[in-house]
Amino acid sequence: MSHAPDLTDIGTPALLLDEARMSRNIDRLAAQADALGVTLRPHLKTAKSTEIARRLGGPITVSTLAEAEVFHAAGHGDILYAVGIAPQKLPRVQALRAQGCDLTVILDSAAQAEAAARAGVPALIEIDSDGHRGGLAPDAPALVEVGRILHGAGLLRGVITHAGESYGARGREAHAEFAEMERSATVRAAEALRGAGLPCPVVSVGSTPTAHAARDLSGVTELRAGVYMFFDLVMAGIGVCEVDDIALSVLTTVIGHQQAKGWVMVDAGWMALSRDRGTAAQSVDQGYGLVCDAAGQVIPDLIVSGANQEHGIVSLRPGSTAMLPDLPLGTQLRILPNHACATAAQHGQYHLLPAGGGPRQVWPRFGGW
Amino acid sequence: MSHAPDLTDIGTPALLLDEARMSRNIDRLAAQADALGVTLRPHLKTAKSTEIARRLGGPITVSTLAEAEVFHAAGHGDILYAVGIAPQKLPRVQALRAQGCDLTVILDSAAQAEAAARAGVPALIEIDSDGHRGGLAPDAPALVEVGRILHGAGLLRGVITHAGESYGARGREAHAEFAEMERSATVRAAEALRGAGLPCPVVSVGSTPTAHAARDLSGVTELRAGVYMFFDLVMAGIGVCEVDDIALSVLTTVIGHQQAKGWVMVDAGWMALSRDRGTAAQSVDQGYGLVCDAAGQVIPDLIVSGANQEHGIVSLRPGSTAMLPDLPLGTQLRILPNHACATAAQHGQYHLLPAGGGPRQVWPRFGGW
């Protein structure tokens, strides 16, 4: 506790960001991308912060056009909007491109390709590598059809996939298999396009689990990941990181007790933590989050076992033989999140705990679409 | 579909508010409070909108000090902050009171009462009527002790309870029983205080299910409820409202298909809908929401069966024999939310569909603490 920062002036609940851990996480995946010989295109859907984007530099991925607009205004010129494009959104894409932003979209149908071609917007074709959501199979006849429509307008940039199912698999070996599924699906799709005389300069893959576990990305040109900069309990639960790598936490204050039940009430409910219960299906259910003291040290077996809108119920994990520590009214605690993307989305700012100590900073976050 | 408003200029996903339904819901509970002879003190934790607060008028309840500050600045003078007070928050309460706001807090311990007494902040004592979260039992010896501390400083306002467990009970009969639990617990607590020579002018009860089902509130002075102005699928699932009463929906756009799986991909993922799966434990699991056409008509058996951050997967309910309708790329749909509080919190504004037709309005929402 001797190096604990003084957080008592922060109104709770509040989102804390441990800069040293974030920097370590960012450097770790950058080194991995270098070793694999691919370009890293970080996904900023989790961060939604121009300060964090500046640390990353280079090409980026976004999940909303609002992100594309904010990050372009902050100086980022090479942006991939990685959600299937609706034709109604193309005017906003065109407006950014007219301002000099190299904004690319993704799509998986002829109707979308025709709309993109009419709008003069370049696109990647989404490939389904694991049955998770959108995308064409690598051997789908529609792939070449879509490719021809885009290429006819000089707008075919390549192929993209995301193995979202990797979040449900545990351990490096399983994640490496998903990484190979991403690689082989996109490389087969690229070969199908090239075999039909079409260009496919970009072969883009990634998710946080697969990006860290990939051993060989032959044929791939770029790697994407988002939550890796913060990590969370879901990622720790599947073995992508350690709990000590989690850079994000929610600062909260004890507001009451129900001693007979072993409950400590805190002012972080689901509004501050999100409704995400991503660890519920894992081998260790962390409730709405794992509880640490104000210095960030995990308190053994203490979790947020229940959450109302502005109330969290902190208690020992079911079956625990640990002792409930004395946590008087007003005590500050930190909650590690199940899912950093969902928890961060509940907050308008990060309270940055600087890597070298020194004064805290407040970094704004944005939301919306 | 003939009276459907034109929503095609709204960028999706977006939060829609049906004014006619909201007004009907507001009027319904106002009439119920009148009939029961109690003051209605609506909870604005769900609305977080000064426009909606203005419609309600009168005393209000809030869940954050940010709400108290915004609503006081908008002209509301009688505000109850209904989350157990942390001593660190009393300076903000004092600042609002110094500006003329009659802001009251709640608490359930001697330590909190001593802090409130030192700060000169009036309080209600929280009573536990159903084991849901905080509060003292009506016969707890601490009740009179806490009452004496507050009364010694002239700050004892009364007692308050909230039967949050009523959300898990189905049907008017069950909710009426919870309403009676709220009434009897608070009235017993008030009698215990009065029996010790202490005043107890305010006896405050309520939750949306109990407020609608209460038959007799003898001894109670005020009634609180929040989600009732919008309603949602959780409330419909326990019989507090009909699906046609739900005033809030998320407008979304079809962005793709996985035809072999019967999936329609839309641009409302959990970021737009929230991670709330409140109907999962009910007899009809609505997934992440029930799907309507753009005019607001429910499409039989169509739900959001899966959600990624910015992708929703729309499909027929498991076991349905309905036909998946043709929903081409670009089609607009509306999603009714599981939990209005959680879904609304994901959005920065309401797109108001006015009761009498006429031009749409945009009403800002706020968040934070």
Number of strands of chain A: 17
Poorly predicted sequence stretches spanning 5 or more consecutive residues of chain A: none
Considering residues with a beta carbon less than 8 A from a beta carbon on another chain, report the largest interface and each chain's count.
Answer: A-B, 63 and 63 residues
Strand order of the largest sheet of chain A: 2-9-8-7-6-5-4-3
CATH topology of the largest domain in chain A: TIM Barrel
pLDDT averaged residue by residue of chain A: 97
Q: What is the domain total for the residues of chain A? A: 2
Order of helices and strands of chain A: EHEHEHEHEHEHEHEHEHEEHEEEEHEE
Q: Major sheet of chain A, described briefly?
A: 8 strands, parallel
What is the CATH architecture descriptor of the largest domain in chain A?
Alpha-Beta Barrel
Spatial extent as radius of gyration of chain A: 22 Å
Percent helix of chain A? 25-40%
Beta-strand content bin of chain A: 15-25%
Please identify the structural class of chain A as seen in this structure: alpha/beta
**Helical stretch count of chain A?**
11
CATH superfamily of the largest domain in chain A: Alanine racemase
CATH class of the largest domain in chain A: Alpha Beta
Short description:
Chain A has 11 helices and 17 strands. Chain A is α/β, with parallel strands linked by helices.
